[in-house]
Amino acid sequence: MDINYRSGGFVVGLANPIIRHNTRQIPKTLKVNHSDNQEVSLSRPLHAEQEAEWIIQDILDKQSSGHALRDMAILYRTHAIGRAVFDKLVLADIVDR
Predict the structure, then answer these.
(1) What are the extents of the domains in the chain?
(2) Handedness of CA 19, 25, 29, 35 (dihedral sign)
(3) Where in this chain does the record put each UvrD-like helicase C-terminal domain (predicted)?
């Protein structure tokens, strides 16, 4: 299956070069079923603390440009990142303990 029905062009555009480096997958280039107008960004932090700092800064930037916290979500893969993000959210006074 090489057509992505869930994500738009920006996400698939970032995913293709990453997937291409997987030596155990069948070579293919993903295509999208629909276009999108939502831009995404790619970050490659060196450790959980750096990732958490980047996430908090992004939240603060979006909040200062008028986006509501209730419209944001943070998805993470590991507990270490989740813990680091939560601690930074508390320090930035974005959430209460």
Answers:
(1) 3-32, 48-91
(2) negative
(3) 2-88
